[in-house]
Predict the structure.
Amino acid sequence: MDKAAFDTHGWAKLPYDPKLAAWVERTSPQAIQAVNIPENRANWLRSQGTWFVGVDVLANATPLTDPVQKAAEFAMGQNRFDWGLGQISTCYKGYPKQDANETVGMFNYRRKRDFAHLDGLKAVGPNRRRKMEEFHGFILGIPLNETPPQAAPFIVWEGSHLIFRDMLVKTYAGTVPKDWHRIDITDAYQQTRADIFNTCKRVELHAKPGEAYIAHRFALHGMAAWDKDLDGPEEGRMIAYFRPFWQTEMQGWLLG
């Protein structure tokens, strides 16, 4: 991984690694099985059945190949951390479709803006005020099957991590880390996100099994719509995501 480019752009693509390809070959059947467990589908199927969110359904499958580990250590700024459980984001032809609990505005944002978001930021309460409730180290995506590039690719806004970092440093100034999860950052977040849409390049990231991509924890990112004229594999577009939680002092999370 080009460290200088990652620092500048906020993302990097990891080239083909036969050991990672072997990991994918071992892991894909486990992922397909997990996606088809009725309880998992009841919990995680969204967008009228066109997206299986699949948070923490991939167990005992940490991708410990050398290139992935080195990229993760650089992005995290630590060489010891808990990978946690993997997400299996599975998308199907027709994504997105409007859910019953999704307003027209929310659905249009999903369709037109890739449902761009900052990881760990949660909409809290009836007014959906944004607070940082989870503190991750990075976002690692590993394709589990071969799919066309326009099958709901991962989207990242290049350089957005630097803009969000500046916003968070300003927002949390004069506060202690133990209180950060209580601080309402809705207005600052929405204004910063609008600025990012206007100034940062929107990048579609596609990778093949054996390749991967990694994004900075402050990168604005989302998932594009599935091209309406595109077919894909029967099991859907499957990507394993890992987002290890931050485990050391929080100033490093904010400034690193």
Observations:
- The chain is about 35% helix and 20% strand.
- Residues 18-35 form the longest helix (18 residues).
